[in-house]
Amino acid sequence: MGEAVDLPAATHFGEGNVNAPGPTIDLVAQDDLPATKKPEDDDDWDYPYPTDFKIRERAIDDIRPLKVAVIGAGISGITAGVLLPIKVPGIQLTIFDKNSDVGGTWVENIYPGVRCDIPSHCYQSTYSPNVNWSEEYAQGHEIRNYWQSVARKFNVHSKCRFRTKVNSAQWDADKSKWILNVLDIEAATTADSEFDFIITANGHFNEWKMPSYPGIETFKGHIRHSSNWDPNFDPNGKRIATIGNGASGIQVTTALQKQAAHVDHYARNKTWIAGSFNPSQRERQETAMPFSEQQLKDFQDPEKYLAFRKQLEGSFFRRFEAILRDSETTRIGADRFKQIMRERLGDDAELLEKMVPDFPPFCRRLTPGPGYLEAITKDNLTFIQDPIDHFTETGIVTKDGVHREVDAVICSTGANVDFAPPFPIVAGEYDLSRDWKPDGKFGFPYTYLGLFTPNFPNCAYILGPHPPGTSGTVPHGAETQTTYIAKLLRKISSQGIRTMTPSKRATDDFVAYCDAFFPRTNMSRKCSSWYNGGRPGARIHGVWPGSASHLTRVLREPKWEDFEYTYEKGENRFGFLGNGWTLKEQDPDSDLTPWLRLESENDLKDLHERWWDL
Ligand SMILES: Cc1cc2nc3c(=O)[nH]c(=O)nc-3n(C[C@H](O)[C@H](O)[C@H](O)COP(=O)(O)OP(=O)(O)OC[C@H]3O[C@@H](n4cnc5c(N)ncnc54)[C@H](O)[C@@H]3O)c2cc1C
Ligand SMILES: NC(=O)c1ccc[n+]([C@@H]2O[C@H](COP(=O)([O-])OP(=O)(O)OC[C@H]3O[C@@H](n4cnc5c(N)ncnc54)[C@H](OP(=O)(O)O)[C@@H]3O)[C@@H](O)[C@H]2O)c1
């Protein structure tokens, strides 16, 4: 007889460990077949290798449709809406958004002065560029229009359910489904829907937060967050307080100073003001920076435009060194920014002293802020660093006891940057909205590569924790993350997989890498930023631990060994092999030899590697 071997257990849904010892079968050696029953002797001969395996009567490429929900239709959700239907055969995609159109950030942020702070030609998809950007740094509405046009071009709207807010996501372990509870905002009704896989794309800054100073609710004037700007509010001639000197506060203060009678600008901490994001670019100006006629003409030539784009976007992939602690770029940056600040503050040494931070540049996200420092020097603006103590019905009192009366307060106080989702995402005993918070069970956004969390099967995040950011571009990052997730979805739907979850061990190893990496960067220095959840000294979770090129490489090929799997109906992992057929070969018109191409069109690097031509 042949030797007995242990096989992995037939894997049942809900049992995570596919490597547990399973039933023992006999491997019968050819020579040991019973002498009386040989195939050549007997037409009714029984194949003597009994098995419980049940062949599924379906072709291997008869793919299981997957119901996938994306929560959010900003740049991340649009990217998913464009790429997933193309990259994942059979996907049934629904994109939920509480707004009435796609665009996220660029739909909601309509405050005066809102515009891109990186060049428009880098803040677009890689696959559907706009050669007609009107300015080097587009205003908010032009960015919104661009992304909405991309969504229309790729039919994303047909997958969207607008004015629909996701209230909660609950993993049903018996069904292996996510149950989304959604609110139809117009009808004010809620309903549950089931999905095989969910992807959060709800944005870092979407959950904007108001400050909670004593008395704020008694303030009788106009009060809003800048991300919730009231289009009917006319700032002209008003006394306005602006709170916060992040990128939003800098933009809105600069714009309001020109319209308001007076601006009290509350900036409790210092911040660096840069000339531009990228030393290879010309410095930002406050006024629009339109393209010349010749440039616009050149952009119509695809080759010239591509060369321009590659040069520009390439320079954003080369600025990683800037974030490294004690690097030459950091030192040069600090000197350069200090000089810019001095010049723009009109050589006002006292103001300069008040504004130049003790922490290095790139500890917080850089803020170019054209026109901001000039605005600060104007007579109708008071720059206030003394912390706010409380609000009154008519204004704001700082700790030093000064009461300043205003007609309106615009809070650019940022968002809920602990990155915990703003609605419960619950699996077993864990809830990401609670357990990613500092006092939660994980205490920080505990993720595998910023994309998944152990114990949360079939749940991924686009631009969640550890997004690309210090180099590269946001749209490129969303595309590479979406493509990685597409690979998982293809694997799940085509290989009989019911659940995929990153292992705790792989996740802990990633966290250990982050903990070793971030001390090398300026982000670990003492400042408050959304990289550290607004808590100096806290674990960095707002950015990828490496360069954008590094992240691109990491995401190119999933490390399948880092995941735990369960299979459909508790089947043997090879249930998906089906009945040995492909649907393709049953179609007389299909191309069964896609690898045969003109020799000139063959690139051996991708020979036999194209998933889509199978
Ligand atoms: C004012 C401002 C300016 C910025 N400028 C730049 C810049 O110049 N360059 C740059 O690189 N980055 C910039 N950013 C960062 C910007 O947010 C990202 O670049 C990018 O737009 C994020 O896209 P997103 O799709 O991930 O998130 P978002 O654009 O925030 O979209 C999230 C979407 O999710 C939806 N959503 C959230 N919760 C729910 C729910 N429970 N149910 C249903 N829908 C939900 C929201 O309605 C929203 O539409 C800026 C951010 C802000 C706030
Ligand atoms: N295109 C652009 O130029 C642009 C514009 C807007 C936003 N963005 C993007 O969005 C990100 C977020 O920008 P953001 O400005 O909205 O948020 P942010 O960078 O987090 O800044 C929030 C600001 O509010 C202050 N603040 C928070 N709570 C406060 C309180 N209770 N009292 C007083 N001040 C308080 C913070 O001060 P402390 O630092 O002291 O905590 C900080 O100055 C940016 O980093 C950028 O990525 C880009």
TrEMBL record:
Record carries keyword tRNA processing: no
Record bears the keyword Flavoprotein: yes
Pfam annotation, one family: FMO-like
TM annotation in the entry: none
Signal peptide interval: none
Keywords: FAD, Flavoprotein, Oxidoreductase
An example Gene Ontology molecular-function term: N,N-dimethylaniline monooxygenase activity
Family assignment from sequence similarity: Belongs to the FAD-binding monooxygenase family.
Protein name per Swiss-Prot or TrEMBL: FAD/NAD(P)-binding domain-containing protein
Native organism taxonomy: Eukaryota, Fungi, Dikarya, Ascomycota, Pezizomycotina
